[in-house]
Amino acid sequence: MKSAASILQVVGRTTGLILLVLGILFWTGRALQLIPLHMLLGSLLVLTLLTQAILAARAGANPGFVALAILWGPIMLVFGMTQANLFPGQFHWVIRVLHLAVGIAAMGMVDGLGKQVSAGGRPGDLHAVGAQT
Length: 133
Fold this sequence. Notes:
Keywords: Membrane, Transmembrane, Transmembrane helix. By secondary structure, the protein is an all-alpha fold.
């Protein structure tokens, strides 16, 4: 289970980095033809988050954190798919910033849940995990 959680952490970090780079390109008006790829990779990040949450739940990780991640995944998916139509106009940048924050939070959740799985599901042992890496 620890190996799977580690692989999911790598997938989450890699996918998240690519998503961030694509997002910056979109914000600067470039590479807009890659929006479908961005959406596909965003869906992969959601699946990674949900899978990591299930592994963490089975490992005995913090149930509140697991529940948040399980709720966050569908929220992130719906928000990402509809964000272009939300709050159009001059202040659409607010939605873009929220979209960025939701994605970064998902990346952090994948990583944090993975650390809990590596610690054997004991959230209090996270400091020991961080000291080993």
